[in-house]
Specification:
Helix content is 37%, strand content 20%. The chain is α/β, with parallel strands linked by helices and 315 residues long. It is globular.
């Protein structure tokens, strides 16, 4: 399909601004540019009942930031809990860049959402982020009742690299015997380091997320190229996908990660995992967090809401 008119407008705006390619920036410059873009586009934050910022114990003497969102409205029982990991190629991103989408999901799905901060590359290479995300989920499972959540109705989600981390956490916790995850929601996830051909070759548009950007992120994330074959880096390469949580996998038509996300959905289904997969045509990588005024974003949030309510129920 042709680009959606809103996506075409975003592309034309980006061309007029002519920003440098991400892989031409230092990591510090890329992080500053992302923070500036988020501040410029986030608008007025969607109100929720409450937001709590805290830190939890991580590996060694490290502390991990978390942000807990509680939805508007009264609850008749503890609410389901969504643990969310922001995207950014394991290199960019923080609790602020994921704030808007977490607020929308909290109110839309009537759940408690906990955003988990994790160590970034290249300062902390794979698998540091995976273990931080797993630590955050274990903490949520242990303490959910303290902020109105139900630890028996626990979901995990993330976009892009956050989707990769959500899939990896599901693999890791399956091997470690829990905590139990009711469902995983993977938004255009990275699932296979070094992917060639197909959408990875087709979508090299310098204006949007492209294969050069993908390579830059992987180079930051991995200490050694061989680490890309580890299933916790490339979930598609796991020897066995049986017994993983039911999944919702969303992809974008004009996205170099499209094929590997859709293949992951097929592999999960072949292993007996209940899977719902949908490609959003006419749009690009990053659409899910683009804003409540974007049609594809609204539709995708509504689909996630429906999936979470079907699997987890409501308060």
């Amino acid at each position: 399909m042709p680009l959606h008119p809103q996506v075409r407008q975003l592309r034309e705006l980006a061309i007029s601004e002519n920003p440098p390619a991400l892989n031409q920036l230092t990591v510090a410059q890329a992080r500053a540019a992302e923070s500036t873009a988020v501040r410029a586009t986030r608008g007025q934050p969607e109100p929720v009942h409450s937001v709590i910022n805290a830190v939890i114990a991580g590996t060694g003497d490290r502390w991990l930031p978390i942000r807990v969102y509680r939805p508007n409205g009264a609850a008749t029982r503890p609410r389901p809990v969504l643990v969310y990991y922001y995207g950014g190629g394991w290199t960019l991103g923080n609790l602020d860049t994921g704030d808007a989408i977490c607020r929308r999901l909290t109110n839309s799905a009537d759940c408690v959402t906990v955003q988990v901060g994790y160590r970034l590359a290249p300062e902390d290479k794979f698998p540091a982020a995976v273990h931080d995300c797993a630590t955050g989920l274990r903490w949520v499972a242990a303490y959910a009742s303290g902020f109105g959540g139900d630890p028996d109705r626990l979901a995990v989600a993330g976009d892009s690299a956050g989707g990769n981390l959500a899939a990896a956490v599901c693999l890791l916790l399956r091997e470690q015997g829990g905590p139990a995850i009711a469902t995983q929601v993977l938004i255009y996830p990275n699932t296979h380091c070094g992917r060639r051909g197909g959408s990875m070759a087709d979508y090299a548009d310098p204006v949007f997320f492209n294969r050069s950007t993908v390579g830059w992120f992987w180079n930051n994330y991995l200490a050694h190229p061989a680490d890309g074959s580890d299933p916790l880096a490339s979930p598609l390469l796991a020897a066995d996908h049986a017994g993983l949580p039911p999944a919702l996998v969303l992809t974008a038509e004009y996205d170099p990660l499209r094929d590997e996300g859709e293949e992951y959905a097929r592999v999960l289904a072949a292993a007996g995992v209940p899977v719902t997969a949908r490609r959003y045509d006419g749009t690009m990588h990053g659409f899910f967090t683009a804003g409540a005024d974007a049609g594809a974003a609204r539709a995708a949030v509504a689909q996630v809401r429906g999936h979470l309510r079907d699997v987890l129920g409501t308060a």
